Amino acid sequence: MSEHLQDEEQVEALKRWWSENGKSTLAAVVLAAGGTVGWQQYQAYSLDQRMEASQGYRAMTAIASSGSESARVDDLGEAIRSDFSGSIYAQFAAMEVAANAVANDDFAKAESELRWALGAGDPDSALGQLIQLRLARVLTAAGNEAGALAILESGSSAYPLGFALALGDLHFTAGRNDEALQAYRNARLTASALGVNPAALDEKIVSLESAAMADAPAGEEAAS
């Protein structure tokens, strides 16, 4: 599950979140601040809060990257969630704690953290869809196939390739090679539309196609 948490995905999700929500959030803050505190005072306070949350999160990811202080990652994640529960950094912190739990094969904790992160924001946003993708992978690893399928079969506008790949992996893990092959083929079509060509995906498809041909009766093989 090395693909479970990648810094590049988090950066992209953060950019997408700000693109989707930044202007409306800022406007709401201006309206709320008007008549109660000066805008400059609020702006300074808000900036301090964002900087503090950002610094805490950077420290957390640095420790997580070292792989040597698992408990410290959890402690920092809890602190960020407690002190900055309304910020996107709290969601990212929960995702980092979930990744830490996955590394320790604690799928129940990973699920709990991801469900908290999902409930802390808009599940239909790009970030919400990323959290759902990771939750589906955690549920798959934990053996909760029905829960994972419910997420993956709903599809994703922000991460269509990731959802298609995860669905293929789920079917493959369950031994449903035909369904896995179809999901991987769908993923390849999505990848082509996006202009990417993941070699690992082609390897999965070739492997399953070869297995299907080997298992096919001689008459069917000749007919194909």
From TrEMBL:
Q: Subcellular localization, per the record? A: Cell membrane
Principal place of residence = membrane
Its keywords, alphabetically, are: Cell membrane, Chaperone, Membrane, Transmembrane, Transmembrane helix
Membrane topology for this entry? Single-pass type II membrane protein
Q: Give start and end of each Ancillary SecYEG translocon subunit/Cell division coordinator CpoB TPR domain.
A: 15-193
- Gene3D superfamilies with a match to the protein in the record: Tetratricopeptide repeat domain
Q: Which domain of life is it from?
A: Bacteria
Q: One of this protein's Pfam families, by short name?
A: TPR_21
Provide GO CC annotations from the record.
plasma membrane
Give one GO molecular function term.
protein-containing complex binding
The answer to whether keyword Membrane applies is: yes
Show the SUPFAM superfamilies listed in the entry: TPR-like (SSF48452)
Give the similarity note: Belongs to the YfgM family.
Name the record gives this protein? Ancillary SecYEG translocon subunit
Q: What is the organism of origin for this protein?
A: Luminiphilus syltensis NOR5-1B
